[in-house]
Amino acid sequence: MGSGELTTTAGFYKSNQKIDTVSTNTSQISEVLGDGSAALLNVTTATRVPLNEKGVYAYDATFFGGIPRKRLNVEYDTNAAFGSLNYRWDRFSVGGSLRYDFGGANGTIYSSQVNGASGSVARDINGDGVISAPERKVGIIPLTSSAPVDYTYNYMSYSAGVNFRVSEPLAVFARYSRGARVNSDRLLFSPAISTVNGGLANPGALIDYVKQAEAGVKYRKSGLTLKLTAFWASTLEHQVYFGPIIDRQYKTCGFEFEGGYRTDIFSITAGATYTKGEIEKDAINPTMNGKTPGGQPKLFGFVTPMMDTELFSLGANVYGLTSLFAQDANQLKLPGYVTVNPFVQVRPAPRVTVSLNVNNLFNAKGISAASVPTLPASGIVMVQGINARTASASVRFDF
């Protein structure tokens, strides 16, 4: 078009998903031993009254916040029309895109949460004629306690950006975007959906918008590639999937670096992201305002040196992150860690590749999540650790 080049795209997306799941929990007591050895335990009161049976403390989620058992049988329909225009002339490139999403959900959900029915009964699970302590806490899904799901939605997403080539190896760019996510099953069993007609009692909770702006600079010459981007984002979150209702707005800003250099058979790539995020507004618990979201390190990154020949490839990925808060209360911090993950590929014959990969070579100890927001008096916390050292080998044939 004229002295430039116009590129257009258009399309239509459609999907249908049917979900029929049952969520159940059982609370058990187990010893904790090293080397992968453990066993279920029976415990009693000081007067020898049994508190559990064969390790089972309760046939429900007593140890998991008392979340009731659930069943959902729901169908989700998603449709989207989209298109984009991109124009490039001389040193400028400018483009934009639109996407219109519409769809809906219908089905039925079952739980004691729906209308306040009892979600726990006493039942002789093992059939021995005696109701033991754990058998007095048996979680059930009352099939007469159901609610419909029946709603529709629509929203618009858009993005626009510009790129300017300052010189042959150097360019600057900027972009602003707004997208969204429909929460679907994350809102089931919450006040956001009416238990009477299945419609949206709180339409604002269904769609979580994400607004993002970014600007940066790119450099590429003689095997060297560098990219630095500054970003800002505002994100909404509504959900009840993991227990308490969440109704929040987050904001985040930071910098992202990507780089690489290659000469002959040697190369190195690296990346790092610095993020400053906070809970900007919590409609349920305002004391969370200004807190750093749990699980978000301020700095994380990687570096991957590599040697690549026709016969073999040899390298390692080194990944690390700084300390982070265990949860949103910002009272318990988890330490940062670094893992080294080497790899080698050998091509002994055409179309044959032998690979060896090692994850966490030096067996670094890293904690990715903790079950409590602060350290209890016992000093004992249930945590989720990263994988210890593992290795895998493979042979691939291409034909």
Please explain how this structure is put together.
By secondary structure, this protein is mainly β. It has a domain at 1-204. The chain has strands at 5-23, 27-28, 56-58, 70-89, 92-111, 120-121, 138-139, 146-167, 170-182, 207-221, 224-239, 246-263, 266-282, 299-308, 312-321, 324-325, 333-334, 337-349, 352-359, 367-370, 383-385, 390-397. The chain has a 14-stranded antiparallel β-sheet with strand order 1-4-5-8-9-10-11-12-13-14-15-18-19-22, with no helix packed on it. The protein has a two-stranded antiparallel sheet with strand order 2-3. A hairpin with a 2-residue loop joins strand 8 and strand 9 (170-182).
Layout: helices, strands, pairs:
Blueprint: E1 5-23, E2 27-28, E3 56-58, E4 70-89, E5 92-111, E6 120-121, E7 138-139, E8 146-167, E9 170-182, E10 207-221, E11 224-239, E12 246-263, E13 266-282, E14 299-308, E15 312-321, E16 324-325, E17 333-334, E18 337-349, E19 352-359, E20 367-370, E21 383-385, E22 390-397
Antiparallel strand pairs: 1-4, 2-3, 4-5, 5-8, 6-7, 8-9, 9-10, 10-11, 11-12, 12-13, 13-14, 14-15, 15-18, 16-17, 18-19, 19-22, 20-21
